[in-house]
Design goal:
This protein is mainly α. Helices cover 80% and strands 0% of the residues. The chain has eleven helices and no strands. Helix 1 runs parallel beside helix 3, helix 4 runs antiparallel to helix 5 and helix 6 runs antiparallel to helix 7. The protein is globular.
């Protein structure tokens, strides 16, 4: 059992390498970690792979990998891992154009973040802001984007790639509609929001979109 844990962790690290070989390495790592009963490491491994898939614009892979990670995280009642992978699933669905599934995942992630007062992750706020932009709620979109960047702080290059894609796919059109100057003001207002108010505003968007019937089905909930 000990050897399986060690080998599983080693393979989990290798699972982040680029190229076609990653899938087979990841599958072997997953099997070993499952045999060892190490669901937390299994969740982390697939969560990392799902994030890499998003960065590489393989959103369908990111969704399927994220779902494996989510099931493993929930088996351990690991709220932090669950929160992270829900954000990843939300982004993957957002980039695939599935707004209902993205909303459901982001809402769960934000609720966990608010419950445990985690103040260093902003992707789910940016994702909910993108959904607000998709719904034509341009001021709210700008405010949530500003709040997201303020909470996230300094970003790694691959994180910036995600924000760049959100800009291209969702925020650019909203910015153009609303106007550059009002958008900038709204974004600055969002950046000044308290942590509690930023989370509350994002959850309000999620709830309103649910009420108006955007969600046809939500198996993530």
């Amino acid at each position: 059992m000990g050897d399986e844990r060690i080998l599983g962790k080693a393979l989990a690290t290798l699972a982040n390498v680029p190229g076609d070989v990653r899938a087979s390495i990841l599958e072997e790592a997953g099997e070993l970690l499952a045999q060892a009963g190490n669901d937390r490491e299994l969740s982390r491994t697939y969560s990392n792979a799902a994030w890499r898939a998003i960065v590489e614009d393989r959103v369908s892979d990111a969704i399927s990998l994220g779902e494996v990670s989510l099931r493993a995280a929930e088996r351990t009642d690991h709220w932090y891992g669950t929160m992270i992978v829900l954000s990843i699933i939300g982004l993957a669905n957002l980039f695939s154009g599935d707004i209902p599934q993205a909303r459901a995942a982001f809402e769960r992630s934000i609720r966990l973040c608010a419950e445990h007062t985690v103040k260093r992750h902003g992707e789910h706020l940016a994702g909910m802001g993108a959904i607000a932009a998709d719904q034509g709620r341009d001021q709210t979109a700008a405010r949530l984007l500003g709040a997201s960047r303020a909470i996230a702080g300094a970003l790694l290059p691959e994180d910036e790639e995600i924000y760049d894609r959100l800009e291209r796919d969702y925020f650019a059109d909203a910015r153009a509609r609303y106007g550059p100057a009002p958008w900038r003001d709204a974004e600055q207002t969002g950046a000044a929001l308290s942590y509690t108010h930023a989370m509350a505003e994002a959850l309000e968007v999620a709830n309103e979109i649910r009420i108006i019937g955007t969600d046809a089905h939500q198996p993530i909930d």
